[in-house]
Design brief:
Length: about 180
């Protein structure tokens, strides 16, 4: 599998690549992906877990024990649990979010998909996500894996990022453009 230089160049990318290769070799790409999705959701929802991951004040041994406990309570697979233990041991837990994104990118490339990040002001329904996926597939020419986020600050519309390309049809951007035009 060919990997982009961007992923290999970053610390998070190198860890994600190592995890991906282990998962691929053991036939666990999907189970590791599911575990990482669970970790990602926990990072978004649980402040104590975010603090554990980001705090440089927690000793390595304490971080390792805490991560093992979190992994057990979340029901993570063995490979992901061991990976989190290595991150805690190497004091790299602060890079976990980036590693998850890189892993998802590697899985998408492995499956022949293109990843797209979609930000909307309100949660999208399943039908809207499906329709957007079909439109993006027609635009890029292959399957698109969508990651949706909600950001009320954009007020309406969508912001879609596909690789280095960004399509910004948000109301916030339109209002900013109008305000700049009115200033003359």
């Amino acid at each position: 599998m060919e990997n982009s230089g961007g992923i290999q160049a970053s610390l998070a990318g190198r860890y994600a690549l190592a995890l991906f290769e282990l998962a691929r070799d053991n036939g666990q790409i999907d189970s590791v992906g599911q575990s990482l999705s669970t970790v990602k959701a926990a990072l978004a929802e649980v402040a104590d877990f975010r603090n554990l991951v980001s705090s440089p004040l927690i000793a390595r041994a304490d971080a390792e024990k805490a991560v093992a406990g979190v992994a057990a309570s979340l029901g993570l697979d063995a490979l992901t649990t061991k990976f989190l233990g290595v991150l805690a041991s190497n004091r790299r837990l602060d890079k976990l979010s980036g590693m998850i994104r890189c892993y998802e990118t590697l899985v998408s490339a492995h499956k022949g998909e293109t990843r797209a990040e979609v930000t909307s002001a309100y949660p999208l329904s399943a039908e809207q996500v499906e329709a957007l996926g079909a439109k993006l597939k027609a635009r890029v020419g292959n399957d698109v894996s969508l990651e949706t986020r909600v950001d009320p600050a954009i007020m309406g519309g969508l912001v879609v990022k596909i690789g280095s390309q960004m399509i910004d049809s948000s109301i916030r951007t339109r209002l900013n453009t109008l305000a700049q035009a009115m200033k003359g």
